[in-house]
UniProtKB/TrEMBL annotation, chain A:
It comes from the Bacteria. This is Uncharacterized protein.
From TrEMBL, chain B:
It comes from Shinella yambaruensis. This is Methyltransferase type 11 domain-containing protein. Transmembrane segments: none annotated. It comes from the Bacteria. Pfam families: Methyltransf_11. Residues 76-147 form the Methyltransferase type domain. InterPro entries: Methyltransf_11, SAM-dependent_MTases_sf.
From TrEMBL, chain C:
This is Antifreeze protein, type I.
């Protein structure tokens, strides 16, 4: 997996941090001491984001880096709190642009990329579960002459 | 008034024509410095322009293509433009090779919108009428045949033989002219094959002011001249050359193809050229149907010279082939040619009908079979008469001496069609005496005798010919003309001034040049003599397989139309015959008697013309049989 | 179901000069003849620089005379015309579903140039054309010279067209020049693309173009500084006119003689400029090798003969008139566009009734994605530029955004698909690790989107980006790169060759740019300044004021000093606000960008200090009487082109472009004022006084309105459109081994 051959074959529940293999895509490959937790915030109201950030920061922030996975466009909320976040287009956005890309294929690979990038020790879900989100992603709808 | 401008290239600077110093055709201030155009080119361009013919995808055949026109045609018509010449190398642009004397049949009839040639017909080294007619046939109905030719006064004259350049300049205006046209007899010469206008006035094509503006001076406007442009529209024929409407189809099972049906002429290797000549007489009078020849005769070249395709098959007597196999192959050859030329008529002119011919006719039952069977057969050819069963149409060219024909054909008249005598050239087509003499380099005032006995395979005749030659040349002030052929070889003249060896075909065209002739009495020669009123001493060829020449000659002698001398007659009689021939009063009497014979029955009609009309007319519409 | 065309033109539409002009003539004539035509654009190997589509060809598409063809379309054409053999010397990098009754390759050049160098590989040309379109190939040389250069034995499947594909010119566009008798001083001239090779050697140039001002005036179109490089000083009687597409006929009309000599190193295949000169009826003097092509339409000689030849015509007016007439007539007879319709009719097979072109609408072009990628989290500058382009794309092209900007929401709100790529700084990650991830993520996105064009807008080019792009050699990659770089950014110039085109949105202050990009101008596609919104598209003043609740009678000063993230503006901002609000009739309208950090803690200084969040604020700017802003590219050009009298306070942080230069230019050209945070804090009062002076403002407005400007966004959008449906043959796909 991975066109450049760096992504390891791993699933969402990785092994213990000490087992980090060589040649990974990991974003902190040069800084192996840090561990990461992904917090998914899919389908969450914008107002609730602040609260979730506070809660999770208190709970995990001391031992791990937290990466938020959001489908909200309100990036400043994360920015203002210096929170690291990744964005996935929401179900509505996917539907609006279903003729332009095959969302189910793309998002599935994107998720695996994110996991390999962040090498999370935990994945915690708020709002919609990531698997449900991925399963609901539409295939590419027909375009003329494609 | 503004300076005249070349309408082709726009230049307004003109110079004098190029040409040989003593050429008859030098003119001043008419040659465009920009593109080299002369008056005729500008006139042609103007007419084309006015008629909107310079665009649209037209097929153009342009002979001896002048660069001033060729460049423009190529730009506008691209691959539809064909520039052609016998010597393509002299042109600075790509030109196809085309020998008008041989290659016209390679071009499909009715395939060009415009056929264009300027000052070409005077150069062709073969029958110009065949070339002109052949070119005309290439024009689509509704298309244009555009050309110009040079003219000199004094009547049409030509010489296809080895005249040297200065002689040609003197006679024809330019060193490479084979002939020159003359305004007075144009209708009789070129006009005999093309529908030419009776007179010429350029202002009918382009208004006078415009002519001056494009530097076509008044001198070129009226009367036939070097810059007169003939613009002949090809008419629709009664028979459409393209796909005809089905309504007028004859009751024939095969659909009429769009190509015109060809005629295949088949002849053998009989002694002399008689059969071939009669077939050529018919072929050149066909207006619409293409002709092709299959012959066993070594004189095949004369067919080619007249512009027809000729195929040669050697007789098995020459090759040693087994006759049955040879006949099979002959049948196959005929079949191939019938298909290749899309021929629906086969014309045969030999006493003896080969098995191969019969077989071919059997295999192509849709082909009309015509047998030209002249009379005066020797008795021992009677067995050949039966072959007439294979020919639905038997044509007998008339013989003036027919009443003394005692041969086998007389009895077999039931289904033969008698037509007038056939000659390749009508007597009226001959060149006038003065012009003919000039063309042959003969003095206008001397007595000229034609001696032509040696062009045969008869050794007696050839010896006799040689003795006569001596006799004749011994007489001072007498000029002798001998006809050369591949059979006679080419020896040098025996006398520098009075002995003329000429290669001329057809010689009859020049026959007004001589005061008397000493010839055999073959069918053609005999009828040329009588119809042409040539005072003649006949020396019949009495070879066993020849036709009954002696009968003809006697018949003529009996009527005072000719003198007769037989080879076996003695030397005294020979001398006497010559003496008589050289007497002007005798000659006058002979001529008068000939005229009386030829003038009977309404005057001269050419049986070849009759047959040609039949082949193009009544036969087609009524069904073959 | 295949669409039917009469003629499909296949060409590299970017060629300058004669090649494209000739093609335009063919297309227009074919359209006039009622033929249904299409144009398939090829990116061939000859042109490496980012030339746009030739305007003459573009116009034909805009006017509907020819259909733009997408390589995905299923087509059958009666005739496919490939112009220029080099464009098919490499295989097309993708299959085509286009078939033809007849396939022609027009050969514009001889196979070998004057030095015997091979100009194209005929075997490859024929083989690739045949493979791509599935037909035998007919070679159509433009002249006998080209025809004769071809080998006797043609490659398999190749045939020679019987006729030449001569160059054509539309005489309607080239009126005959005014009839005029030449007299000394005569005007001699020429026109050509600006290329030193098109000019003769230094030894010969003064023979051909004499410096004797008493007898000659020399006018040259397409000549500029390069001539001084070639020859040293230019004689005073020479007039050099820079190259222009328009009005060449008028230029030629001013000449008496057309003299064209070139460097021996140049091999002229035809010389369309000469044809144009002949068409106007000029007396043309050429080197002898042109005689094959032009015959008596021109006169020939060596440079040393020029004066003598000219004298011959001056002393013989009739000859001059005659030669002039011959020149034009030659073109009329042999190169008139009117003969093209017949030529096509000859070449095309008769239409097959079963597949006759159906009437009615041409099928729509297939949808294609265009991926806009941009960097940075500071400001909305890059994203705004891309939105400016995206909004001007035609319906068949779908913009998709991938950005590192927090303002990504703006793109989504405009209705576009958008993806977020967090920058390594906020991730606190090592740049190398981050680039590795970025490469992978971009690869996935591109692989799924399959964009036809990738448009990158940033100063910095990230390794991850170039690595991902390297996996997609066929995508057309554009770098939109604004100028006015600092020297420390020079290193990014090296990335230029990873892109197929570098487009530089123009700077009003371009004369102040001596940064690294200035030297590269010649290799970029320069467009006028880019604005997201055209000034004419703004809300009218009354509506804007009403929307912003700004009463008449008050002087509204807009404040837009940037987010302050990297350059602290608080002090200067406070001082300016206070000064503005000292007057009773002012309103200070502070416009916040969507990404201003909350923590900036803006305090309001009274009722007449309003804070609004507006994007795009420019839409409302007719409401403002004056403004105080930073001098970022977008804001600066909006202010000036929008004719809003502005006091510019540049953000002079190291990573920013040289905002101060812009502001300086504005001040020195009377189109604004400059105040620098570190230098001018003591002069706030004077700046504000001047800003609020109506006379001063009126002067600035007038000067701003005098700028002739068209929106570069439109040029870039058209450029994207022209490159979104190309077939690439500029690289050899057979050599695509491992990455």
């Amino acid at each position: 997996m991975g066109i450049f051959g760096w992504l390891p074959q791993r699933g969402p529940k990785p092994a213990a941090p000490d087992d980090a293999p060589e040649q990974t895509l990991a974003i902190y490959a040069s800084q192996p001491a840090l561990t990461t937790v992904i917090v998914t915030l899919i389908g969450i109201e914008a107002e609730q984001i602040d609260e979730i950030i506070d809660v999770t920061a208190r709970r995990f922030g001391k031992k791990h880096r937290i990466v938020y996975l959001t489908d909200s466009l309100d990036f400043m909320r994360f920015r203002d709190r210096n929170a690291i976040f990744e964005y996935l287009p929401s179900a509505l956005e996917q539907k609006l642009h279903a003729a332009e890309i095959s969302w189910n294929a793309y998002l599935a690979r994107r998720w695996r990329l994110l996991v390999s990038k962040w090498q999370p020790v935990h994945v915690i879900g708020y709002g919609q579960n990531i698997d449900v989100f991925l399963a609901a992603a539409p295939p590419m709808t027909a375009r003329t002459d494609r | 008034m503004a300076r005249p401008t070349c309408n082709i290239c726009g230049s307004s600077v003109f110079g004098d024509t190029y040409g040989e110093k003593d050429s008859a055709f030098l003119r001043q201030n008419v040659r465009c410095e920009g593109c080299g155009s002369l008056e005729r080119h500008r006139l042609i361009f103007e007419v084309l322009r006015l008629r909107g013919l310079l665009s649209g995808n037209r097929r153009i055949l342009h002979l001896a293509p002048e660069e001033c026109l060729a460049t423009l045609f190529r730009s506008r018509f691209g691959s539809r433009y064909l520039g052609a010449d016998i010597d393509p190398g002299q042109f600075p642009f790509a030109v196809a090779r085309l020998d008008l004397c041989r290659d016209l049949p390679t071009l499909a009839p009715a395939s060009f919108d415009i056929v264009l040639h300027n000052h070409v017909l005077e150069h062709v080294a073969c029958d110009y009428r065949a070339v002109a007619a052949g070119l005309h046939r290439l024009v689509k109905p509704g298309g244009l045949h555009i050309f110009s030719i040079p003219f000199l006064e004094g009547g049409f004259r030509e010489a296809l033989d080895e005249h040297i350049g200065t002689e040609r300049t003197a006679r024809f205006g330019q060193s490479d002219h084979m002939r020159i046209f003359s305004p007075g007899d144009l209708a009789a010469t070129l006009g005999s094959v093309l529908p030419l206008p009776a007179d010429y006035d350029a202002t009918r094509l382009v208004p006078a002011e415009r002519l001056l503006a494009i530097n076509v001076p008044e001198a070129a406007w009226r009367g036939f001249n070097n810059n007169a442009v003939f613009l002949i529209e090809r008419q629709e024929d009664g028979r459409a050359l393209e796909a005809p409407t089905p309504a007028v189809q004859p009751a024939s099972p095969a659909p009429r193809p769009p190509r015109p049906d060809g005629v295949l002429f088949v002849s053998a290797n009989g002694i002399g050229q008689g059969h071939l000549t009669r077939q050529l007489a018919v072929a050149r009078r066909l207006k619409h149907r293409p002709s092709a020849f299959l012959t066993m005769s070594y004189s095949a070249a004369i067919v080619r010279d007249l512009g027809f395709p000729v195929h040669f098959v050697p007789h098995h007597g020459l090759t040693g082939e087994e006759p049955a196999a040879w006949n099979d192959r002959l049948a196959a050859e005929i079949g191939l040619l019938l298909e290749a030329y899309h021929a629906t008529t086969l014309v045969y002119d030999v006493n003896f009908v080969f098995d191969g011919v019969i077989k071919a006719l059997g295999e192509h039952s849709g082909v009309q079979a015509v047998w030209i069977r002249r009379g005066m057969w020797p008795a021992h050819h009677a067995g050949y008469i039966g072959a007439g069963a294979h020919f639905p149409i038997v044509i007998e060219p008339g013989d003036y001496a027919g009443e003394c024909d005692g041969g086998p054909t007389v009895a077999d008249r039931a289904k033969t069609r008698l037509v007038p005598p056939m000659l390749l050239i009508d007597p009226s087509e001959r060149t006038e005496r003065a012009a003919a003499r000039q063309a042959l380099g003969l003095p206008q005032e001397a007595t000229v005798i034609l001696l032509d006995l040696s062009r045969s395979a008869n050794p007696d005749l050839m010896r006799f010919h040689a003795r006569l030659l001596d006799d004749l040349l011994a007489r001072p002030d007498l000029h002798v003309v001998e006809l050369q052929s591949p059979l006679t070889g080419s020896a040098a003249p025996r006398h520098p001034a009075r002995h003329h060896r000429v290669t001329l075909h057809p010689a009859y065209a020049a026959s007004l040049a001589w005061d008397a002739a000493i010839v055999r009495a073959s069918y053609n020669t005999f009828h040329e003599t009588i119809a042409g009123g040539i005072p003649t001493l006949f020396v019949p060829d009495e070879s066993p397989d020849m036709d009954r020449q002696v009968d003809r000659a006697r018949w003529a002698q009996a009527r005072g139309a000719a003198l007769l001398h037989r080879v076996e007659d003695g030397e005294t009689q020979r001398a006497a015959a010559l003496d008589r021939l050289l007497r002007p009063d005798i000659r006058a009497g002979l001529t008068a008697a000939c005229a009386a014979i030829a003038g009977a029955d309404g005057g001269w009609r050419n049986g070849a013309e009759t047959l040609a009309r039949m082949l193009e007319g009544s036969f087609d519409e009524g069904g073959a049989e | 179901m295949s669409t039917a065309l009469d003629v499909l033109f296949v060409a590299d539409v970017r060629f300058e000069g004669g090649t494209s002009t000739a093609l335009a003539v063919e297309i227009r004539t074919a359209a006039r003849a009622g033929l249904r035509t299409g144009l398939l654009a090829i990116k061939g190997p000859l042109l490496g620089l980012p030339f746009p589509m030739h305007p003459d060809l573009r116009r034909l598409i805009d006017e509907g005379l020819i259909e733009r063809i997408d390589p995905d379309m299923r087509l059958h054409a009666r005739l496919v015309l490939i112009h220029h053999p080099t464009i098919i010397e490499n295989r097309p990098t993708r299959p085509l579903s286009i078939t033809a009754d007849r396939l022609l390759v027009v050969l514009h050049h001889p196979m070998y140039d004057g030095y015997g160098r091979r100009q194209y590989d005929l075997d490859r040309v024929v083989a690739h054309a045949c493979d791509a379109f599935g037909s035998d190939v007919f070679l159509a040389p433009v002249s006998t010279v080209v025809r004769d250069s071809l080998p006797r034995r043609l490659p398999p499947y190749a045939h020679m067209l019987e006729e030449d594909w001569g160059n054509l010119i539309d005489l309607d566009d080239w009126a005959a020049k005014p009839a005029r008798q030449p007299a000394y001083p005569v005007v001699i001239g020429r026109h050509s693309r600006p290329d030193p090779l098109k000019w003769p050697t230094a030894e010969e140039v003064l023979l051909a173009y004499p410096a004797d001002g008493a007898r000659f005036r020399v006018r040259a179109l397409g000549a500029d500084a390069f001539l001084a490089e070639k020859y040293g000083t230019i004689p005073p009687n020479w007039e050099l006119v820079p190259f222009t597409w328009d009005d060449v006929p008028a230029f030629l009309g001013t000449l008496d003689f057309y003299v064209y000599f070139h460097d021996p190193a140049w091999s002229e295949a035809f010389g369309r400029t000469i044809l144009e000169a002949l068409a106007t009826g000029l007396v043309v003097i050429l080197p002898p090798h042109f005689a094959l092509l032009f015959g008596r339409a021109a006169v020939y000689g060596e440079p040393a003969d020029v004066e003598r030849l000219i004298d011959g015509f001056v002393s013989d007016p009739e000859r001059y008139r005659s030669q002039s007439e011959q020149a034009r007539r030659f073109v009329e007879n042999n190169h008139d566009a009117a003969i093209y319709a017949d030529r096509l009719a000859r070449i095309m097979a008769a239409p097959d009734e079963a597949v006759a072109p159906q009437g009615g609408l041409f099928p729509a072009l297939p949808q294609r994605n265009v991926l806009f990628a941009s960097s940075n989290g500071i400001g909305v500058g890059h994203l705004a530029q891309q939105l400016a382009i995206a909004q001007r794309l035609p319906p068949g092209l779908t913009p998709v955004f991938a950005t590192m900007s927090y303002s990504m929401k703006a793109a989504v709100q405009q209705g576009y698909q958008a993806h977020f790529l967090p920058h390594h700084r906020i991730l606190d990650a090592d740049p190398e690790d981050w680039n590795t991830c970025l490469a992978e993520e971009l690869f996935e996105l591109i692989a799924h989107l399959r964009p036809a064009v990738f448009a990158y807008d940033a100063t910095a080019v990230f390794e991850g980006v170039t690595r991902a792009l390297g996996a997609f050699p066929d995508i057309f990659k554009i770098w939109v790169r604004r100028p006015l770089w600092r020297e420390c950014h020079r290193v990014f110039l090296d990335f230029s060759d990873r892109f197929d085109a570098v487009i530089e949105p123009g700077e009003l202050a371009e004369t102040f740019d001596h940064g690294p990009t200035a030297a590269c101008r010649k290799e970029t596609f320069l467009v006028p300044p880019v604005l997201h919104l055209d000034p004419a598209e703004r809300m009218a003043r009354e509506s804007a004021r009403a929307a912003l609740d700004l009463p008449e009678g008050m002087t509204v000063v807009a404040f837009q000093l940037g987010s302050g993230a990297n350059f602290d503006m608080r002090e200067v901002r406070g001082a300016l606000l206070a000064e503005v609000l000292r007057r009773p009739d002012t309103i200070a309208l502070e416009i916040r960008s969507p990404i201003t950090p909350e923590a900036a803690g803006l305090e309001r200084l009274g009722e007449r200090h309003r804070v609004v969040e507006l994007f795009p604020s420019f839409r409302f700017s007719n409401a403002f009487d004056a403004a105080i802003t930073a001098a970022g590219y977008n804001t600066f050009h909006e202010q000036v082109l929008g004719a809003i009298p502005t006091l510019f306070v540049p953000n002079e942080a190291d990573e920013m472009d040289l905002q101060a230069s812009r502001a300086r230019w504005a001040e020195l050209t009377g189109r604004g004022w400059l105040m620098r945070r570190d230098y001018d804090l003591g002069f706030v009062a004077a700046h504000v006084e001047r800003l609020l002076d109506p006379v001063e403002r009126e002067s600035v407005v007038r000067r701003c309105r005098s700028i002739a400007w068209t929106n570069g966004a439109r040029d870039i959008a058209r450029y994207v459109e022209d490159h979104a449906r190309i077939v690439r043959t500029d690289w050899d796909i057979t050599k695509l081994g491992s990455l």
